[in-house]
Amino acid sequence: MNITSSQPERTHLRLGFVALSDAAPLAVAALRELGARHGITIELCRQPSWAAVRDKLLSGEIDAAHALYGLVYGVQLGIGGPQADMAVLMVLNRNGQAITLSRPLADAIQNGASVKDALSSLGRKLVIAQTFPTGTHAMWLYYWLAAHGVHPLRDVQSVVIPPPRMADAMVEGGLDGFCAGEPWHAVAEARGAGGTVAYTSEIWPDHPEKVLACRRDFAALNPNTARALVRTMLDACAWLDAGAHRAQIAQALASAELLDVPRALIEPRLAAPDGGNARALPVRFFDDGAVNYPRISDGLWFIAQYRRWGMLAGDLDDAAVAQAVNQTALYREAALAAGVAVPGERCAATFCDGRVWDGGDVAAYLAGFEIRA
């Protein structure tokens, strides 16, 4: 099959997104009409929450979406809502998320108190928000808390709030902290509600974050369309590699139709987290394709975390699930046609607690954690 001459089965695509800075590839693709050279047009459909993204993907109201990696796996496994066979077409970005705590807690940690001591100083169970029960932010939050000796299921009340509501909830006093994407940490700091105490790149350096997701039957029935969409998003991600381009898209993201947040609160952490904070790795969108390959081992890590926290039990071929969800063959075809290098399948990562994940023995990996469900 000559992929480059294959016509998309669908030429107009509705793409869902949540108001976050890392929706930048979708914004670039739509505003610069990058799909035209691949035979598609893109309509952006802002959603109020990740639950809305899930529901509209499943109903077919949107064709694909900027989505939490963990949302896709939660739906696939039937623990993030109704079960449905899902597909990860590519990774859209790495890094770029954070954990913010209320001002007194953040000040205590920044003045040298341990995370465990600071969180216990209030004398009650803290309320800390994340964005979806099986999502990336829940998993980053749980991992970070456990690495600091805090049991995320017993010592903390974890609640789900849509990202754009996080700063408001902090200001209103309903939250002690939250884990989400930008620019909502910058907004919370600007409003005096809290301080950023950790960046997710400190938990897992260069971790996968948002993905381009769709139902698996959509990719199966429309393979040329799916490849055209991947190629369009690769073009958008490559465009974002230039610092000057990130400044441009920050201006666009500030619009009422996209994030509705002042550019001054978007651009610094989109260009470099916290205006260049040395603790944080910058959000990455492309890096010659190193960002975008949907590794099986990355999906398997999320399944391992669901087992760690008692969200998934029973006899299941975890690797087979990850191989079915992550569309590595389709991605390779699209990347080859685009002249984008495909990185290796295995990639070891060292986490903040010194644990190493390489996609190998899941049972042995889980057995090494002292804090788990």
TrEMBL record:
Which keywords has UniProt assigned to this entry?
Cell inner membrane, Cell membrane, Membrane, Signal, Transport
Q: Please provide one cellular component term from the Gene Ontology annotations of this protein.
A: endomembrane system
User: What SUPFAM superfamilies does this protein's entry cite?
Assistant: Periplasmic binding protein-like II
Stretches of the chain forming a coiled coil according to its record: none
Q: Where in the cell is it found?
A: Endomembrane system
Major location (coarse): membrane
On whether Nucleus is a keyword of this UniProt record, the answer is no
CDD domains, per this entry? PBP2_NrtA_CpmA_like
Database matches in InterPro entries:
NrtA/CpmA_ABC-bd_dom
Instruction: Extract the PANTHER family matched here.
Output: ALIPHATIC SULFONATES-BINDING PROTEIN-RELATED, NITRATE_NITRITE BINDING PROTEIN NRTA
Q: What is the protein name stated in its UniProt record? A: ABC-type nitrate/sulfonate/bicarbonate transporter, periplasmic ligand binding protein
Record the organism.
Caballeronia catudaia
